[in-house]
Amino acid sequence: MLFLKILKDAYTHSPSWAKVLLASVPPSLILGRQYRSHLKFLESSDSWPTERLLEYQRQRLFEIAEFAANTVPYYRELFRELRLPARLSSMEQFLSIPPIDKETIRRQGEKMLSEAVPARSRYKVTTGGTTGVPLGFWMSSDAYAREWAFVHNLLARYGIVPSDRKIGLRGVSFNQSKRGRFTQINPIYRELQVSPFHLTESIVTQILPEIEYFKPGYIHGYPSSITLFAKVALQGGWGMRLKLKGVLAISETLYPHQHELIEKAFGCPVFTFYGHSERLIFAGTAPHAEGLLVDPRYGLAETIDGELIGTGFLNRAQPLLRYRTGDHARLSKGPAESHGVLAFPRLTEVQGRWRQEMLIGKNGALISVTALNMHSEIFTNVERFQFYQDAPGRAELRIVVSGNFQKENDERRIYQAFSNKVGEELDIAIRTVDQIELTPRGKQMFLIQKLKTSI
Q: Where are the beta strands (DSSP E) in 24-67?
């Protein structure tokens, strides 16, 4: 499955004509055999009785624990200290494993990697993180395809198929925004990407003919960005003309007033799912069901003092047992009278790490900090970072650097990465500092905003 990662990287750097050719290949072929077999499994197990789903989860949980105990140095030592057998026989044994967090990953380094997964079968994932403290970890090459099987399984609940076109309102780079282009086509994803950094009424109205010509089946993006887009649609009265099947809101908490506004603007279901880069918990909505349904085929979700603790089944390159996600929620059992998907445990009152914090652009555009999150290695030599804004159209990126930081080279890469996203809407100045501001309780904020914003 390393081929899929190589293909993805090659596609990113391919000319437009090559992307168009590749987009003619059905998604199921591009995503590969692992995707097809896993999607088939999900479809066949959607109606399993609760007992069978729980037994499957238990077997997969003990399998990943045994794999970690036998092949990961950190867990091999931990199981020995706890006097646990590699093959667990009870949930009590599993729950005796102490939870880990980001600091565990940083501190243990390569001791967290599986010796059974060669370097050619894994890839590096780097996330900027909501606290401004970068985190890097390794993912199995086949996890990407399996993840998409879960996403497409969720979309199918709302009648959306992989070949449907979509409007993307997420934080990708928009190199042409400086030239007045605020959309771009991503053929392989059948997506018209709309810049979330330029969602003013005049710009959205300007690109509306292109959106209608594209004939999207659904919208996929951040709640804050979709809400701004929906407000313009309501003002113009054109949202219903798109005839969307649904709106998928991701990565941020979707608030009730936003759900209502988006639904009113487009006249279609609004749904969401909870997930994260570490791929430990997957919980999505379903028609006529309350809360987020936690998929037991993806991993195990627990809560400790309200914090979500996850153990995922997809990643063998760096398996994480009982990982503290930093998110908080209420976790409860599904309805006793239900079966299959509707019997999944429920997440409610989710308080994600990504809050809807906003920067203000030169033309009044609201820019979600979620859209500025960087899944790249530009922060490899940065220990902490934080945005600060006290004037529209300008922001300061404060960074605490490591000893390996190369001022000219690293600053140029960081500046270019953000510039590719926001274009000329926001001027970003980089400043190296010894420390950054914390909350009264000692927590780090991703953004210090001195201006008033609302969505």
A: none
